Amino acid sequence: MILAIVDFTVSAADQVRALSFLATTGPAARAEPGNLGFRAFANTGDPTHVAVLHEWDSPQSFEAWLDSDTFAAVSATLRPMMTTPPVSRRFETRLYAPEK
User: Fold this and answer.
1) How far is 56 from 81, CA to CA, in rounded Å?
2) Is pLDDT of 100 > 80?
3) How many domains does the structure of the chain reveal?
4) 8 Å CB contact between 78 and 21
5) What share of the chain is helix, strand, coil (3-state, %, to 5)?
6) pTM, whole model, 2 decimals?
7) What is the pLDDT of residues 16-70, one digit of tens each?
8) Number of Cβ atoms within 10 Å of the Cβ of 43
9) How far apart are CA 70 and CA 25, in angstroms?
10) Residue 43 included in any domain
11) Residue 82 maps to which CATH number?
12) In terms of residue numbers, what domain contains 44?
């Protein structure tokens, strides 16, 4: 599984706008083949911070997302709002579910 965490900043005036946009595009991202989850967050202590957490079932599905029209549209809308470049951390993981 691929887990990607993207952090970026926007003006305080744009934080709600960025989060609202991500909320409306979340269903399209979740509809992409191999997507296991797509969530956007705000840091309650920082009115300029936005984070996106998304999960993919394979490196191939994640790469397909990066090449998708949906990703291009998300980037085209969010990048002009960003006050710093996005920081993207990508992890290859496996689900940990201990037996009880």
Assistant:
1) 26
2) no
3) 1
4) yes
5) 40, 30, 25
6) 0.88
7) 999 999 999 999 999 999 999 999 999 889 999 999 999 999 999 999 999 999 9
8) 13
9) 8
10) yes
11) 3.30.70.100
12) 2-92
